Amino acid sequence: MKENLKFEENTEYLNTRQNFETYYEAEILPALKKAENIRKKYMSAFVVMLILILIWLGFALHKLGQGLSALREGNGYYGLAGCLLTLAVCWPLFGYYRRSKENLLPLIARFFGDFSYVYRPDLPLPLLEKSMLFKNKGEIVADDCFTGTYKDLPATIVEYLTFKRQRRRDEENRTERFVYSKTGSGIIFYARMNKNFSGQTLTVADKGVFNKITRYKNLQRVGMESPEFEKAFEVYSDNQIEARYILTAVMLEYMTELKKSFPKIEFSFFDEHILIKIETRKNMFECTSFFRSVINKPRVEKIFKEFYLLFSVIDTLRLNQQRML
Q: Going by C-beta distance under 8 Å and a sequence separation of 6 or more, which residues neighbour residue 30?
């Protein structure tokens, strides 16, 4: 691959995207059309509920104009009706949101392999801890998840949320309780390779002047020959020779390209695993919108490119492992 070649001009990527075009027309577009009809039904229900809540609001304001005593005469019925109508107006939103993810996202992922959608699975916490990418992150829980195989390798893509638990004491009642506060969110991508790494290699975000005080137990900094890569990442490993076998020029290019989409992305190679952590507030798997047409090809193509880059890291790593034999 030429060094000055733009990623979008990569022949392999262009061929895969062309195959995805055919897959889109045959599999995804019919599903999107069906989902669009469902969205319109949910939207109709949403509009009806919204009209009802506006009518209720009009009555409530009218009674409020007559004085607070007029509201009290309703014996709480106005408040109860307001709560029920609010829940009713939210129902189409949540119902459609969950259903669209369960139906459409696995369809996009299946272009790459045999994947299925799982909602809030248990996370492999020992694996996350061993990756060294989740220091001081608090408690981690999963949200949307794809699990399956990519070219016979077990792989998982899961959205995660991190929380910190703090103990709060109520001095008046002399009781204690735990309070949870959200500290972060993102995506974890991990796969089990068919060969063990002899050491551990981390590729983490460049921290500028703080690189000098960054420490990972038993790992030393590894210098790379790509200036563009060095501006974005720092590499640490306990096996510098293996680290250079893993991080070939092609691998550095894919990592740098992923960095453009996900500024806070980091990689860990250890045992027989590759684990990629992406910190982001965005929802990577948003392929539909309740208030806009589902048939949005650029949005689907963006998800395709994100998946392509993640899986390309596995492909490149597999080739690198074969050279290491």
A: none
| Cα atoms in the Cβ-side hemisphere of radius 13 Å centred on 261 | 19
Residue-wise pLDDT for 115-173, tens only, equals 888 888 899 999 999 999 988 777 888 988 889 999 999 999 998 988 887 777 666 66
> For the whole model, what pTM was predicted?
0.75
What does the alpha-carbon distance between residue 79 and residue 182 come to, in Å, rounded to a whole number? 31
The contacts found for 3-8 with CB under 8 angstroms, 24 or more apart, are 3/249, 7/253, 7/257
Q: Using a pLDDT cut of 70, give the percent of the chain over it.
A: 75
pLDDT of residue 100: 60
pLDDT digits (tens, 9 = 90+) for 228-277: 898 899 999 999 999 999 999 889 988 988 888 888 999 999 999 999 99
Strand runs (DSSP E) across 261-315, as ranges? 264-270, 273-279
CB atoms near residue 97 (< 10 Å): 15
Chain center to CA of 300: 15
Rounded distance, CA 2 to CA 249, Å? 10
User: What is the C-alpha separation between 125 and 188, in angstroms, rounded?
Assistant: 12
Alpha helices in 184-248 (DSSP H): 227-232, 240-246
Which residues have C-beta within 8 Å of that of residue 72, sequence separation ≥ 6? none
Q: Are 247 and 224 in contact (CB under 8 A)?
A: yes
Distance of alpha carbon 33 from alpha carbon 29, whole angstroms:
6
